[in-house]
Specification:
The structure is a single chain. By secondary structure, the chain is α/β, with parallel strands linked by helices. The chain is built from 11 helices and 14 strands. Helix 3 packs parallel to helix 5 and helix 9 packs across helix 11. The chain is globular. The chain starts with a strand and ends in a 7-residue tail after the last helix. Bound molecules: nicotinamide-adenine-dinucleotide (NAD) and uridine-5'-diphosphate (UDP). Nicotinamide-adenine-dinucleotide (NAD) binds next to helix 1, helix 5 and strand 5. The site of uridine-5'-diphosphate has 14 residues, from helix 7 and strand 8.
């Protein structure tokens, strides 16, 4: 049986995707250097699906070590999650981001040539749309002019993949542009636990809820939105994970290059998310309205019709579900995957 290679498979989105792939009947091989995840994730995956995926602790940039993965397995498709993802860190250490994110993608494409693997799914981001000019965002809207080195890496990898698809007539490439993943596995055994103080809204909220942090600062209350706070498209991580299974199916039909927004199509403000968390979990979140965060766009939400029309995928879980699941994960694992 052929296998799906999942790079970054012990990370937040990767681990949830591995579970959905195994549930869908795929055999999975994970490559992760554990730079931002823990080995314990494999135990959690095994507890949910009853199968322990094969695991290689190596960097995707290490071509020699990666050759071994391709030689020891019969890879039919790659899902490439591995990458560094902190916007703020990418401003401080841009070369580290260009090296890791572009380097690992280029290495994979070279190995695809060498081992005749034709299918790849890539984790892109809504950040490639830069400062969008209209809402909701459709896939044909302009990309580039990204606001961070991290965003630039996603944009540049997309360009490389588009050129790769053009020059390889038998290649199938799915570029998935994620909006804002939140939530956790419904079992409460897998979720997101960023190192240090979280930059993203949901982990910040859950850490205030669990008492690790004192108070959420809402970045800006004077935006031109109904309640003055910024609007994003928050998608449950399990819906996002399932989107990858649909993308793998899609690539099996030899479509060439496909690009999809993966979001819910619905904008939610910061205060709406805080209120949903409070309602879903029957608790109060200590918050204050602070200054705007430099670089934030007022609103960002997706039109996801294309993913539905062409793959039959759409998000089905609500913000409320995501708030319950995020809290269930956080309260059962106050220190993430650490003992
Ligand atoms: P994550 O940090 O939890 O997972 C990424 C994984 O990749 C980690 O386990 C890390 O150890 C691994 N990794 C990094 N560099 C590697 C390398 N060179 N070799 C092997 N493993 C390596 O992040 P995530 O939230 O699961 O994101 C997955 C992908 O989705 C990333 O590419 C990210 O940029 C993209 N993305 C994430 C979001 C988000 O908000 N979480 C939004 C849009 C796009
Ligand atoms: N946000 C906030 N306080 C925080 C973290 C985030 O008010 O501590 C806001 C942020 O300004 C943005 C939204 O929450 O409007 C989502 O931010 P996140 O960093 O999670 O995602 P992104 O801005 O990258 O879409």
């Amino acid at each position: 049986m052929s296998q799906i290679l999942v790079t970054g498979g012990t990370g937040y989105i990767g681990s949830h995707t591995v579970v959905e792939l195994i549930k869908a009947g795929y055999e999975v091989v994970i490559v992760d250097n554990l730079s931002n995840s823990k080995l314990e994730v494999l135990n959690r995956i095994e507890a949910i699906v009853g199968v322990r995926p094969k695991f290689y602790q190596i960097s995707v940039q290490d071509k020699e070590a990666m050759r071994k993965v391709f030689e020891e397995n019969d890879i039919s498709c790659i899902i490439h999650f591995a990458g560094l993802k902190s916007v703020g860190e990418s401003v401080l250490y841009p070369v580290k981001y260009y090296s890791n994110n572009l380097g690992s993608s280029i290495t994979l494409l070279e190995l695809m040539d060498e081992y005749h693997v034709h299918n790849i799914v890539f984790s892109s981001s809504a950040t490639v749309y830069g400062t969008p000019t209209r809402m909701p965002i459709v896939e044909t809207d302009p990309i580039g002019n990204c606001t961070s080195p991290y965003g630039n890496t996603k944009f540049q990898i997309e360009c490389i993949l588009m050129d790769f698809a053009k020059s390889h007539k038998d290649a199938n490439v799915a570029i998935l542009r994620y909006f804002n993943p939140i939530g956790a596995h419904e079992s409460g055994t897998m979720g997101e636990y960023p190192t240090g103080i979280p930059n993203n809204l949901m982990p910040y909220i859950t850490q205030v809820a669990v008492g690790t942090l004192e108070c959420l600062t809402v970045f800006g209350g004077d935006y031109p939105t109904p309640d003055g706070t910024c609007i994003r498209d928050y998608i449950h991580v399990v819906d996002l994970a399932i989107g990858h299974v649909y993308a793998v199916h899609k690539l099996e039909s030899n479509p060439g290059l496909v690009i999809y927004n993966l979001g819910t199509g619905k904008g939610t403000s910061v205060l709406e998310l805080v209120n949903a968390f409070q309602d879903a979990n029957n608790m109060k979140i200590n918050y204050r309205i602070g200054d705007r965060r430099p670089g934030d766009v007022v609103e960002n939400y997706a039109n996801c019709d294309k993913a539905y029309k062409e793959m039959g995928w759409k998000a089905t879980r609500t913000i409320y579900d995501a708030c319950k699941d995020s809290w269930n994960w956080q309260k059962k694992n106050p220190h993430g995957y650490e003992e």
